[in-house]
Amino acid sequence: MVGRRFAAALTWCGLGAMAAGWVLVSGPQPRLWDAGTLPPGRGPATAGDGVPASPPQSIRGPGRFEAALVPVAAAADGALALPENPGTGGWWALGAAPGASRGTVLVAGHLDTRESGPGAFAALLEFELGARVVLTGADGRAHTYRITARRSYRQEALPGDLFDSGGAPRLALVTCAGGYDHATGRYEDNLVLYGTPAAAPSPPQRR
Fold first, then answer.
1. For the whole prediction, is pTM greater than 0.85?
2. SS (H, E, C) the chain
3. Domain 56-197, what fold?
C-alpha cells in the first residue's frame, strides 16, 4: 500500500545533482531540489554505438502504470524541466537512451498535484523488486528493464551519476518521496528505482 497522504499543493520532484565538478553552462547555481546540472561539452545521447538515440515516447510497468515521455534537460538556472502534467514523465536527454550499451536512462515524473491528485509516477512507490518496465522508443523498439534496487535519497543528496551517460547500462526511475514540507512546498526525499536490461529490444514496428 502507498500508505501516505498526497500534498495539497503542486509538488515538484526534486532532482538534485551533487556531482563534484559539475557546473552550469549559464545562470546561477542549481536549485538542489530540481537540478540536473549540465557538464560542459555534453553532447546528445546516442544508442551506445555512435548512432543517434531514438528517444523514448512511453513507459509502462506493473498494474496500470503507463505514461507518455518527453525529452527534458536543465534550464538556465539548473532546474530539470519536467513536464507539469503528472501523467507525463521526462527523459533526461543528455544521458543514455533506452537500449544503450552504456550509461543511465533517467526517467522522472511528479508524484502528485493539487489539481489532479496522484500522478502516474505515484505507482513507483508500490513497485517490487523484479518488476519489469518497458520503454518504447520513437523508432518503435521496446526496451525491457527489470527493477533490481530501490533507494531513497534526501533531495540535496541525489547521486550525480544518475545524470551520466557512462558506466554500466541501467534504468533509473525517479519521483518524490518522504515527508512533505508545507513551508517549502517540497517533498523531503526522492525515490529512485534502479533497473537492468532484461531482454534484447523488440524489432521496430511497421508503420
1. no
2. CCCCCCCCCCCCCCCCCCCCCCCCCCCCCCCCCCECCCCCCCCCCECCCCCECCCEEEEECCCCCEEEEEEECECCCCEECCCCCCCEEEEECCCCCCCCCCCEEEEECCCEECCCEECHHHHHHHCCCCCEEEEEECCCCEEEEEEEEEEEEEHHHCCHHHHCCCCCCEEEEEEEEEEEECCCCEEEEEEEEEEEECCCCCCCCCC
3. Sortase; Chain: A; (2.40.260)
